[in-house]
Structures are given as structure tokens and as C-alpha cells.
Amino acid sequence: MKIAILSRNAKLYSTRRLIEAAKQRGHEVRVIDALRCYMNITSNHPQVHYKGETLDGFDAIIPRIGASITFYGTAVLRQFEMMGVYPLNESVAISRSRDKLRSLQLLSRRGVGLPVTGFAHSPDDVNDLLQTVGGAPVVIKLLEGTQGVGVVLADTHSAAESVIQAFNGLKANILVQEFIKEARGADLRCFVIGGKVVASMKRQAKEGEFRSNLHQGGSASLVRITPEERAAAARAAKIMGLNVCGVDLLRSNHGPVVMEVNSSPGIEGIEMATQKDIAGQIITFIEKNAKPFHTKTRGKG
Description:
By secondary structure, the chain is α+β, with helices and mostly antiparallel strands.
């Protein structure tokens, strides 16, 4: 097979492992920077150009699209889909998961466990907003934040008011969520491939920090998840329409709650914690499923 990887940096661990796993299985691999692509949007003959050449002949494409380039990256991926290239994750599903509000609304509609969440732009009554999520302490998030950036824990009512007012001054959309104290600064990253949780790890925040993201200094360790947690992660992935994703869960007093569904999960942390060949499993999934024009959301925008 001829496989393309949409990645801005071929030296990143996740990209390197995918290249290595594909080549070990005899596939031809090429890394493509989505921002260097340009497209010919022509009826019945879509094309993608890259550094002066036309890209064609690919059987599958693995999108590793960073949050900062979601709009352009998914546009490039959509063009490849129109050309019949099989996407590991579809452009529609990636866009859906990157929109925090939309993803929470979709999960909520299907009854998936979530932390109590409020959404606001410039609330006239901050007190009422805080009361809707159970009062302080609360976690306040910028809607566009990623990897733990733009996430603040407000311990008191007055602190929460100050943070919300500050974000109001930036004209920013925010999410206000209940703080799951019983999680003790830890979350579960469940790695889902083809609707099944293939690996899971516990991420623990460093001392004095509540964000467990590895980018924020958190540590990862092997963990055994419950059948309920496994089912919640698989269900969240299915609702988002993602073949491969990382589902972040918190252990609350009322069962597992989904914090986020990541459409481009890092491979390094989960492979190091579990000693599993996650990259190899991703390539195996592509081998079993890659067919021309094989997308679930074709024509749905």
C-alpha cells in the first residue's frame, strides 16, 4: 500500500513510529505537510498539489493534524477523501471532535457521562452560571484551548468570577465545569482503535497542579480500567465517528465521565506506559479497512 501521513514534522515520535510500523509491513510511506499543500477544486477531478507536484496514487492517509491548523488541515484531508483515498479518521469526525462544545453536546445527547458543564460568552449573571455547575471550585476552559493550555481551576466563587470576567475581556467563549475532586488530579487516557480500547494509561498531575496532561508535566503509568470505563470510551469514539482516538476519562463518584475525545492522540506516552505496539495496530487497522471512497460521512459535510 501507498500511505500518506499528514504531519508538519516527520521527526515527531508519533510520526516516526507510524513510518516505522508501515515500512516494517512493506508499505510505502510519505510524510506531507498539510500547510504546504494547495488544492485544485474542480468538478469531477479534485487534486492536491505539493511543492510543485500533483499528489496521487495513495491508498490511505493518516491525519496528524494539530489543533492550530484544524481548518486548513481538514480541508486538505477532505480533498484526499474526494479523490478516493481512505482516511484513518475522516475530516468531518476530526472537525466534530475539535469543537469542544459540539462534541460535548453530541455526547450529552447520547447519554454519555460528562462533568456538569456550562457554556458562555459574556454572561450577564455570573452567579447563575456558577450555580448551574454546582458552584466553586470550578474548572474554566477556553473553548479553543488544547493540551491543558487555557484551563484554570478557580477554588472560590470570587476567583471564578475574576477569571470569567478576564476571559470576557478577551471576548472568548468559555466552558465552566464542575471540579471532580475525587479524581485527585488524575485521568485515564483510553486509546481506541476500530471501536475497541486497545490500551489505557493513568495520567497523574504533578504536585500542586490539577492538569494531568503530559505536556503540563504529568506522569503516565499502566492502569487496569473497568468494563464501564471501557464501554464509555468506546461509545464516545463511536459517537464522534473516529476510528482512532484517545478518550480522556475521570473517575467520579457517579461513574466515569468523559473529558475529551482527541482525534490525533500522541503515541509516545501510551506506548511507553503499556509497552504495546500502538503504531503497528494502527497500520493493521488500515490494512483491514482501506478501500477507495470508503468513508462513513461522505456527502454529509
